[in-house]
UniProtKB/TrEMBL annotation:
Protein species of origin: Weissella oryzae (strain DSM 25784 / JCM 18191 / LMG 30913 / SG25)
PROSITE patterns: GLC_GALNAC_ISOMERASE
Protein name, as recorded: Glucosamine-6-phosphate deaminase
Lineage: Bacteria, Bacillati, Bacillota, Bacilli, Lactobacillales
Function: Catalyzes the reversible isomerization-deamination of glucosamine 6-phosphate (GlcN6P) to form fructose 6-phosphate (Fru6P) and ammonium ion.
EC class of the enzyme, as a word: hydrolase
GO MF annotation, one: glucosamine-6-phosphate deaminase activity
InterPro entries: Glc/Gal-6P_isomerase, Glucosamine6P_isomerase, Glucosamine6P_isomerase_CS, NagB/RpiA_transferase-like
Pathway(s) per entry: Amino-sugar metabolism; N-acetylneuraminate degradation; D-fructose 6-phosphate from N-acetylneuraminate: step 5/5
Gene3D superfamilies: 3.40.50.1360
An annotated GO BP: N-acetylneuraminate catabolic process
Amino acid sequence: MMKIIRVKDQVAGGKAGFKVFADALAQGAQVFGLATGSTPISVYDEITNSDLDLSEKTSINLDEYKGLAADHPQSYHYFMNEHLFSKKPFKASYVPDGLAPAASETKCYDQIIADNPINLQLLGLGQNGHIGFNEPGTAFSTQTHEVSLTESTIQANARFFANEAEVPHFAYSMGIASIMQAQQILIMAYGAAKADAVAAMIEGPVTEAVPASALQNHPDVIVIIDDAAASKL
Ligand code: GLP
């Protein structure tokens, strides 16, 4: 079941997303799946400025670039430290180790998720319908895996790097099956560039060509979108 919340912009989406997060916490959520990218920043700002206490909670991030150390300024671990963890620490925060070998890291990460079942998973949406770093064509049965990024994702993420040549071409990501295990999922999307992906996610067929369409099969999904992202619904 998908519940859709329309907001006017990303700031309003941050407030709506914060309410979902705070409600889950009030209902006893212990483990939060977290996402990077520009989309969740407004939720993290609301959390940072709130009096929520996360010091006994656990977070598990979706993905990390392969080859980047946690202290690399473009790593997702660095992003999380900067936007959330340094200001609102959790008891434990897991992000895939971009420097670890793929076979051991993906196995280890699946074990972390199994040991800490995610109550609420936050997600952004890629322009091509990807979630985490699960690109179109990823099998819905996939757990944590090494992924080869598509050209469109590399280009979309190049704005964070000095130039496109510096964007890593591989990443470690929770798979679609890992994401679908979460008790509740909050996916957010803002801006016209996401409109096609939003329409395909909500109204299109459930197909591995659109990773986010898998969410139609999840029992508890909240979608927060602004008017521009909703324009093709
Ligand atoms: C990256 C991340 C995704 C994110 C997507 C969208 O590819 N791996 O988790 O959802 O970008 O990013 P943004 O929120 O900046 O549009």
